[in-house]
What does this fold into?
Amino acid sequence: MAYDLLIQSISKHVTLSEDDIAVLKSFLKEKKVKKKHFLFLEGDMQQQVSFVSSGCLRSYAIDKNGNEHIIQFAPAGWWIGDMRSVLYDEPATLNVEAIEDSEIVWISQHDKEQLYEKIPALERYFRILAERALATFQQRLIDALSLTAAERYSNFCKRYPSLIQSMPQKYIASYIGVTPEFFSKMLSQPMKRK
It folds into this structure.
């Protein structure tokens, strides 16, 4: 069932009773997203966060020159959304697209706030995730400013080992901040070992 992986994820950080799980499930909604279809687009009002039960999604922004900049990959077991849109009730600045056929479990921000009242352990769970996400994005920013493309690719391989073979190279190039042509050339050269 689509909820099993989410319950496992939550259980890594907090303990929920069977009653808590039943209440949580009553607030969740399921959705299937076909490969190359969008969960939402830039400009949409985005009031939900989504947990990937199966498949993989990506979030990205498009700059004024039409170039895509991938912000996040979300394989099974990861959350994805446009948090600025969710928290500030503003149009989304990100696009979220399924890279492969995917199933998600989603919850609106309003329902999530209600769940915090009913199941305080969930507020702790989402706080832990938010702190880890902030630390990860800070490190990614530091890496973008201080590491070579080869080093950023190495970090990508460590962070997303299950995606290396299945991910189109143009997506990996976008994530590490290089053109597909540069990325292809970089891969054709032997990697230097430290």
In short: The chain has a mean pLDDT of 93. The radius of gyration is 18 Å. The first helix runs from residue 3 to 11. The longest strand covers residues 48-62.
